[in-house]
Amino acid sequence: MAKPNIIKIDARNRTEFGKGAARRARVAGDIPVVIYGADLDAPKHILVDTLDFHAVIRNHGVNAVLDVNIEGESQLSMVKAVDQNPLTLDIDHADLLAIHRDEKVEVEVPVVPTGELAPGALLMQDAETILVNAPVLAIPEEIEVSVEGAEVGTMVHAGDVTLPEGLVLTDDADLLIFNIVEPEEEPAGDVDADIEGMGEAETPDEPAEESAE
Q1: pTM
Q2: d(CA 181, CA 126)
């Protein structure tokens, strides 16, 4: 499903630089962000509210299209990279790409299976996303792929995926997305051994006879 709206977010120009300045900004509740773009004279260094930006990523994903209001100046952008703290998962930094409403971009889009498999079949997902070329205002948050009734031995490759209108696959068409396999069964011997072991009770050691004094 394509995003219905461009997400508006406020920002202000960043005037201090360096690790110390970035740390102070994060402590104050802001995230340092850089906007890049071929049409820009120079990258734009800005600060955005931490809670606002976290909400964008949480609700719209990393392909979110933003209308960034930089102290009254509007800049259409999309999220290109997010740097998270490995311990806290807080966003330490982000890169945005300056875009135009009428252009297309290459993005990774999550692929999600739908439908019920044939009885006795198990779905293995080999790739979580596929690369597509899409209009910036029609980037889907995910692409659904039906596996209804798929039997053991069925494989779905990137080239098999039906894309929404306007999207073009740029990934390898032979990239394996879903593989329908037969569930592995636990060896009967191991099951019998477990059952037999459950029925055996440990024999307590007999108390030693008291020696006569």
Answers
A1: 0.69
A2: 12
